[in-house]
Amino acid sequence: MNIERLNGLSMEALCALAEKMGLDLPPALERVFAVEAILEAFEEDSAERRSPADAAAHIEEKKYSGSELDEIDASIDAAPCIARLYNETVVHLLARDPEWAFVFWDVREDEMDLLRLSEGFSGLFLKVIRDPGRDGRTGASFDVPVGEEDSQWYLQLPEQGAQYRVDLCARLGSKHRVIAHSNVVRAPRALLVDALGDLDPAAAELAALSGLERLEIVPLPERHPSRILGGFDV
Questions:
Q1: Beta bridge partners of 186
Q2: H/E stretch holding 117
Q3: Contact at 8 Å (CB) between 184 and 130?
Q4: Which of 1, 119, 182, 194 allows an S-S link to 93, with CB 3.0 to 4.6 Å?
Q5: On the CB side of 14, how many CA atoms lie within 13 Å of its CA?
C-alpha cells in the first residue's frame, strides 16, 4: 500500500477502506488527512507484525491479519468499480481493437426512478451510431438491448477506420429518449491498406525496406455486424 494508490481512490473508497481497517474517520475529514490516517494505521500494523513480542499476544492485539491486508489491497485494485457511487448519468466508449469496443455507463437513481414511471417505459438500450455528424445528423446505427442492472458491454464494430458514438436510450412505447451521449472514438485499422500496392510511392518504399512483403499478410475476411448484433438500421 502506498500514497500513489490511495490518491487514486475516491473519497467514498477511502472511507470504505478505513472502515475495513477499523478506523473511525470524522465525516468532514479532508481527503489528505484521510490518506495520512490510513497510511499511519498500515505502518503501525506493519511495525507490530515485525516486533519480537509474544506471538499469542501479538495475534490478539493487532488490528487486522495478513489475510485482511490482502483483502484491503484487493479493494484498492477494485477501486474503479466504486466509481459507480458517483451516481451520475454518463456513458463512455473505448475502442479495444479493430473489431471490438467497450462501453460502460450509469444512470442517476432519481432519473432511473422517473424513467420507470414514464408511460410506455420498457427498458434501456444502446444506440451505436457510425460516423455521427457534428450538425446533429447521424449516420447508420444499430440498437443493443441492455438490462437495467447492466453497466458495461462489449460491442462488435462493423467497420474499421470509422468513427462511432453510443447513445444510452430509454424505450418509451414506439419512441425512445436519449439519456446520454458517449464520446466519439475511431475504430483502429488492422491493416494500413488492403494491399501494399495501394500505398503511395514513399510509403511503399518504406514498406519494402521493412520486409512487410515477406510477411504474406492475408486480408481480413468480410464481416457483417448481423452475425452478432443484427446489423445497421440505415
A1: 163
A2: helix 109-117
A3: no
A4: 182
A5: 25
Residue with cell 451520475: 88
What mean pLDDT value characterizes the chain? 74
Q: What is the DSSP string of 28-67?
A: T--HHHHHHHHHHHHHHHHHHHHS-S-HHHHHHH-SS-HH
pLDDT digits (tens, 9 = 90+) for 14-48: 787 877 777 777 777 777 778 888 878 777 766 66
Largest CA distance in the chain: 78
What is this structure's pTM?
0.51
Q: Kindly compute the dihedral angle of the four CA atoms of residues 27, 9, 4, 23, in this order, to the nearest 10 degrees.
A: 40
Topology classification of domain 87-188+222-227: Immunoglobulin-like (2.60.40)
**Bigger pLDDT: 155 vs 208:** 155
Rounded to whole angstroms, the Cα distance separating 18 from 11 reads 10
DSSP H/E element including 76: helix 66-77
**Which stretches does DSSP call E strand in the chain?**
90-95, 100-106, 121-130, 141-146, 152-156, 163-172, 175-181, 185-186
pLDDT of residue 192: 61
Taking the domains of the chain in order of start, what are their residue ranges? 3-84, 87-188+222-227
